[in-house]
């Protein structure tokens, strides 16, 4: 009996799965980048409190640039930057939580109370971006090959 009973994929199947995983990570990174763009642009759609305006501009812009960088890496054949996507997940989580940490609808400043639509847009967008970024970082970390010395194949 020369049949193999292992569930290990053949070399061709492994490479095809890697390409599908990277393509999925690439498009998810692009989607997260668009969420970051929305977070940065949302204060111009809704009426923000001053603190939320700057938080959205800075954190949304950072998410947009970092997730866009990961999209670029995957588009040029490099692997996902697990550290960058982990940072994006933390920034997105901060966006969701900061609505209540820095005042949110209870914040009264020179502009006034923030629009409830902006608060919930930030919470939902932040949670979605955090979940997708965490998944991308997890999937990229899972693809690390073990059992070989560094720099050898």
Automatic annotation (TrEMBL):
Stretch forming the signal peptide: none
Any one Pfam family match given in the protein's UniProt record, by short name: SPW
Domain SPW repeat-containing integral membrane: start-end pairs: 27-133
Region entry Disordered, spans: 1-21
TM ranges: 27-46, 52-72, 84-107, 119-138
Keyword Transmembrane helix listed: yes
Keyword Nucleotide-binding in record: no
UniProt superkingdom: Archaea
InterPro entries assigned: SPW
Keywords of this entry: Membrane, Transmembrane, Transmembrane helix
Feature: compositional bias, Polar residues: 1-13
The protein's name: SPW repeat-containing protein
Species whose genome carries this gene: Natrinema salifodinae
Organism placement in taxonomy: Archaea, Methanobacteriati, Methanobacteriota, Stenosarchaea group, Halobacteria
């Amino acid at each position: 009996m020369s049949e193999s009973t292992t569930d290990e994929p053949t070399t061709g199947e492994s490479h095809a799965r890697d390409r599908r995983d990277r393509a999925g990570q690439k498009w998810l990174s692009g989607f997260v980048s668009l969420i970051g763009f929305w977070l940065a642009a949302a204060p111009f759609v809704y009426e923000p409190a001053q603190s939320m305006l700057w938080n959205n501009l800075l954190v949304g812009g950072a998410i947009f640039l970092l997730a866009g960088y990961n999209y670029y890496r995957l588009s040029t054949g490099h692997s996902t930057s697990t550290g960058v996507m982990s940072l994006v997940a933390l920034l997105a989580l901060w966006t969701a939580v900061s609505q209540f940490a820095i005042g949110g609808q209870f914040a009264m400043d020179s502009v006034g109370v923030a629009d409830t639509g902006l608060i919930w847009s930030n919470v939902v967008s932040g949670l979605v971006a955090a979940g997708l970024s965490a998944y991308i970082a997890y999937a990229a970390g899972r693809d690390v090959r073990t059992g070989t010395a560094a720099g050898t194949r």
